[in-house]
Amino acid sequence: MAAFTRSTWDFPAWLPARAHSAAIGCLRCQEACPENTRHKRAVERRYVFDRQTSQALLEERPAASLAPEAAELIRLLELEGQEEKLARNLAALQARA
Q1: What is the pTM of this model?
Q2: For residue 53, which of 44, 49, 63, 75 is within the disulfide window of CB 3.0 to 4.6 Å?
Q3: Which residues contact 88 (CB under 8 A, 6 or more apart)?
């Protein structure tokens, strides 16, 4: 994982870089949960942010300042107020790509 430029974006030392697979959280507990066994083959819904929105999120802009479609997606995903975490995690996902 590439080094981050903001100290607030540093991950705890105990968290492996490979843990990042989502904008918020890693979902590993959901994958391992025995209650989800029957749902493993369910279609996963993935959301994609366009470049402009991704850049705005990396700059920690609030959802209200995004294009209406992007702001609505942030609201639907219940990520309002998570700008710093989103920026950090998107930067980590970019570093992995």
Answers
A1: 0.64
A2: 49
A3: 4, 6, 8, 9, 11
Q: Which two tokens stand for residue 26?
A: 């890693």
Q: How many CB atoms within 10 Å of residue 94?
A: 11
Contact predicate 65/56, CB 8 Å: yes
Alpha-helix residue ranges (DSSP H) falling in 1-97: 28-32, 51-58, 68-76, 83-96
CA neighbor of 19 nearest in space, from 34, 32, 6, 5: 32
Q: How many CB atoms lie within 10 A of CB 19?
A: 15
Contacts of 38 (CB under 8 A, 6+ apart): none
Residue 17: DSSP 8-state: G
- List of residues 6+ apart from 73 with CB closer than 8 A: 47, 49
